[in-house]
Amino acid sequence: MSDLRLNATQLDRYSRHVIMDEIGPDGQQRLLESAVLVVGAGGLGSPAIQYLAAAGVGQLGIVDDDVVERSNLQRQIVHGDADVGRPKVESAADYVAALNPDLDVDTHDTRVTADTVADLVAGYDIVLDASDNFATRYLLNDHCVLTETPLFHGAIYRFEGQLTSFTNERGGDEPRPCYRCVFPEAPEPGTVPDCATTGVLGVLPGTVGCIQATEAVKYLLGKGDLLEGRLLMYDAMDMSFEEVPIRPNPSCPVCGDDPEIESVGDVAYEGTCGISAD
Amino acid sequence: MEIDLRFFATFRDAVGEKERTRTVADDATVGDVLAALENEYDGLEGQLLEDGAVRPQLSVLKNGRNVVHMTGVDTSLEAGDVVSVFPPVAGG
């Protein structure tokens, strides 16, 4: 029994978790001992950070190199009007500190690059991809495949969301695809416009980021069925969720039978995230 | 025969609708359909096929299964099949 490790305040704070058989004091303790890296403190990262913090994930790393802009506030709800101009990681860390004093928050006011990804991810149990660009998404995928780090994927476009979860546990009987199994290369820069160009429904990343956080919490608890091997496509306009099975691609450049990518140094991430010409 | 086509994200923008029914030859393959779409819509020209294969920047599904795991562009079609075309999206 480990329930005595939760103090009286924690038993109160997390009582709606603790009371459930699926979580209980042991599950809550597990959350408090977990470390999650959230890459991006924007539309997806905001709700994910909020719910992971509220759930008592004990160590929360937040990576973002942007400052808060007023146009972010329509959807990036971890930031407030007074935060405009501040680094997003600081604004998000302040929110978490006010919400839950149980947490240790690490702020990384930087961009994830092939040179920094290993140091940034080291020490965290899982990564939540709440980034806003293909370079970061392919880099996180490749690093997490190569290091067998679970990665929780969410992405948005106007009124649509795409979600899936990659445990990156290979070698077992279960098929474990990666992002490149579905999309071997990123679209050419400029062909899939970003939120600034196309607009985005403000509440859309709320739904998608919450699902990412749900998956992360389930994984940390070891409960439920993950979106592994399934790509969930959400259409806010139709209010429809569709699920597409995704399978490992034997010729996947990073997790296939004979992978070309053996290191993130092999990839030119600023282009289509294909293999470097050299 | 008739098949159903479904488009997501940028492909939805290029086609101007989420789904449509299209009449194709009885022996049409997935590749034939993609080539026809490239011809029909300016915004899709060069976006679906590359060197005779599905471009690595998108996924094409037949009835919810990636054609990569079948026979790619040579994957055969039957009346009523649903072909979905979607790109990765990066927004966050």
From TrEMBL, chain A:
**Domain THIF-type NAD/FAD binding fold: where?**
14-254
Please give the name of this protein. Answer: UBA/THIF-type NAD/FAD binding protein
Q: Which GO terms describe its molecular function?
A: ATP binding; nucleotidyltransferase activity; sulfotransferase activity; thiosulfate-cyanide sulfurtransferase activity; ubiquitin-like modifier activating enzyme activity
Keywords, A to Z? ATP-binding, Nucleotide-binding, Transferase
In terms of superkingdom, the source organism counts as Archaea
Name the species this protein comes from.
Natrinema altunense (strain JCM 12890 / CGMCC 1.3731 / AJ2)
Record has Lyase as a keyword: no
Spell out the InterPro entries in the cross-references: ThiF/MoeB/HesA (IPR045886), ThiF_NAD_FAD-bd (IPR000594), Ubiquitin-activating_enz (IPR035985)
Q: Spell out the coiled coil positions from the record.
A: none
**Entry's transmembrane regions:** none
User: Would the keyword Nucleotide-binding be found if you checked this record's keyword annotation?
Assistant: yes
- Name any GO cellular component annotation: cytosol
UniProtKB/TrEMBL annotation, chain B:
Q: Where are the transmembrane segments?
A: none
- Which PANTHER family does the protein's record reference? SULFUR CARRIER PROTEIN CYSO, SULFUR CARRIER PROTEIN SLR0821-RELATED
Pfam families of this UniProt entry? ThiS (PF02597)
Q: Which Gene3D superfamilies match?
A: 3.10.20.30
UniProt name for this protein? MoaD family protein
| Alphabetical list of InterPro entries matching this protein | Beta-grasp_dom_sf, MoaD_arc-typ, Mopterin_synth/thiamin_S_b, SAMP1_3, Sulfur_Carrier/Prot_Modifier, ThiS/MoaD-like
